[in-house]
Design a protein that fits this description.
alpha/beta, 6-stranded mixed beta sheet, 13 strands, 46% helix, binds glucose-6-phosphate
Amino acid sequence: MSTATTAPSIAPVTPVDTRPEWKALVAHADKVKPLHIRQLFRDDATRAQDLAVNAMDIHFDFSKQRVTRETLQLLVSLAKACGVEAKRDAMFRGDKINVAEGRAVLHVALRAPKGTVIKVDGKDVVPDVHAVLDAMSAFANKIRSGEWKGHTGKRIKTVINIGIGGSDLGPAMAWDALRVWAQPGLECRYVSNVDENDFYEKTKDLDAAETMFVISSKTFTTLETMTNAHTARAWSLKGLGGDEKAVAKHFAAVSTALEQVKKFGIDPANMFGFWDWVGGRYSMDSAIGLSNMIAVGPDAFRDMLAGFHDMDEHFRTTPLEKNLPALMGLLNLWNNQFLGCDTLAVLPYCQYLDRFSAYLQQLEMESNGKHVQLDGQHVRWQTSPIVWGQPGTNGQHAFYQMIHQGTKIVPCDFIAFAESLHNIGTHQDLLTANVFAQAEALAFGKTQAEIEAEGVPAWLAPHKVMEGNRPSNMILARKLSPRMLGRLIAFYEHKVFTMGAIWGINSFDQWGVELGKVLAQRIIPELSGAKPDLKHDGSTNALINQYRAWRGR
Ligand code: G6Q
């Protein structure tokens, strides 16, 4: 957390709902709401071709959204009126667009090729980025080759990342996504929860002599991470005979806080830094990805960075009409703002993307879950959608029923790959048939007449009717790879940026999270020790007393 000490000069933000382009969309939505996607396809022979963009081995098909060509023009006009392009350029330039914290927002610099110049306070940050990447690579290579030995001379087999939020969700997601590229014999695990069951389960079958902990924390003060880090230290020392020197061989740190790292007792030579212009939820491509780099190797990690950069360049240079993240942001805004849909389901048809939706929940909801504009005025419209989801086809046998026939409209992002990473049968065709069929059924539905024509009795037919007209995007990529993963993540990063820019909010602070970090502090001492004089509300007091009673305190 950081707060600018002097009030920055923040230009007043024009509330987006006062803009003529917004009002035009409100009026236009009344015309679109009665239209059915079936009709939109009937009326427009080249809709599927024209409402899709192909770039970087990604086919983004948004023709099954409840939009007309006019809707898209109006949305692009809104983006232009709100200065999305100028705001994007300011981010890439290193301007301090995170005004509440007085910081630049430069995750794009983390994947900028050597030689790019991006300045913060007059200093080019790209050489520093590459120096850290080089140091990470050397460290990762030593562990991968076995040159790095643990305290007792054994090689490292398991890397445990201890971190939470932005210091956990990205690397944990990428470990799942890229495990095919992981070196055999090397495994990553992720401990995040302060619930000791997490630490216990992740370490119970491990040998401390073969285990490396990476303590990942931007601030190196987060309660959960520091608690788990101290537990890890004690666990290692116990397993290694109590020799304090062992720590140097079994602990690395990723942080912006050198002093805190030293205080913990980690050798600064094993510390990998990043910078205050990298937000936690935008940090998986910084040193926070160290566990991933150790697993998949520096080359694959750099491929992932190249994928991020591909999407950065696309976002930076492509006209909004063909710009993947801008379009996805605008369509999401349309659904949530003008068609009244509160949520977004992200449904990857790829088991390796098991944790992708959980990762996006933070990226999107922590970034855009805001109630005021940059200038502090309260917003009068909805901000972040509720993001949720899990891989198909599993979800089809669970919550899809509600998406098909429930009373709430849930826009979906389907993510699918043309090629599998393994070919052990007909699975990929079956998987792909499912994802296409779901999107088709959601959009086009099934009428009572169609059902009765199949011989279903009239009394049963209403139960089988699928109204359709349920919007979705199809993100069909050629094949999952480190590079593709980078592209997909940056696709969503810039989508989130686009929406935040239109709303005029700060997508890069997180005061609600900061609050969570201090709230528990008052209660911690009240749960143990002498009977406290409780001064909370009645409910909280009663809960504390019940807990103490059950713990015999
Ligand atoms: C991310 C948030 C938050 C943060 C965690 C961990 O954007 O700020 O999720 O990443 O609270 O913080 P530390 O890395 O400082 O431990």
